[in-house]
Amino acid sequence: MTREIILDTETTGLDRKEDRICEIGCVEMVDRVLTGRTYHTYCNPLRPVNKEAYKVHGLSDVFLRTKPTFKRIHNRFLSFIDGAKLVTHNAAFDIPMINAELERLGIDPLENEVIDTLAMARQIHPRRRHTLDALCSLYNIDASRRSEHHGALVDSELLAQVYVELQGGLQHGMQLDLLGEEKEPEVQPARPRPTPLPSRLTNEEIAAHRAFVETLGDKAIWREYV
After folding, report:
1. Would residue 74 show up in a list of annotated catalytic residues for this protein?
2. What is the b/e burial string over 5-16, where b = at least 16 CB atoms within 10 angstroms of the residue's CB?
């Protein structure tokens, strides 16, 4: 059994030394099937949200001011991801941001195995765009819930679908015998009848057919079957 947590964060900006996490969204998958278990929280970042970051996720200082700090939520978050592989789009950003928050609390960095879907997409589709929106479009995944702004939980749910597609879809790697694999029917060779079937034609019909063939000329192919 492989347990994976698809993870996304929203932050106040791009500088992990100065900026902070303001939203975390996670969905759980076991053997590449969503279990329905999720973890989602907003965080008070204790600093203003960068204007460019606000344009992306729409989380305002006023909204975040009433939310718990990362210090208050970190235990539940770490418990949810404990022992699982972490799957994230652009791990070089999300994981250092999380580790920076942990470092501020005097906690060791994450030791989870990390899978970066951005790196996977670049390898599998080198000539395409690799944003989450672009990959959803490529794989015909409905991303309408993303609307105008990004959201960590919605993005995690979409990324889970993209992640499965990047690996070849749900059927990739499944044990087909467990799903009741259908076998092609064995083709039996035709056997001649021991006794030919009796003709269904009457003598009158046979005579009429012969008379008709006589009208077709000496070279008519039907003469061979009279």
Report:
1. no
2. bbbbbbbbbeeb
Q: Which domains does the chain have, with CATH numbers?
A: 3-172 (3.30.420.10)
Please list the pLDDT of the chain residue by residue as tens digits (226 residues). 899 999 999 999 999 899 999 999 999 999 999 999 999 999 999 999 999 999 999 999 999 999 999 999 999 999 999 999 999 999 999 999 999 999 999 999 999 999 999 999 999 999 999 999 999 999 999 988 887 678 999 999 999 999 999 998 864 444 333 344 444 555 555 556 566 666 666 777 777 767 766 776 666 665 665 5
Alpha-carbon gap, residue 166 to 145, rounded angstroms: 21
39 membership: H or E segment, kind and range: strand 33-42
Which spans in the chain are helix H? 51-57, 61-64, 70-81, 91-104, 117-124, 132-138, 152-166, 203-214
d(CA 185, CA 100): 60
Could you give the angle at the alpha carbon of 64 between the alpha carbons of 105 and 38, nearest 5°?
75
- Is the distance from CB of 21 to CB of 96 less than 8 angstroms? no
Write down the catalytic residue from 74, 125, 130, 149: 149
Q: Which residue is associated with the tokens 């204790």? A: 46
Tokens of 218: 């000496």
Residue 94 main-chain phi, psi, to 5 deg: -65, -45
Closest CA to 100 of 26, 13, 25, 28: 13
| Nearest to 45, CA basis, from 100, 90, 121, 110 | 100
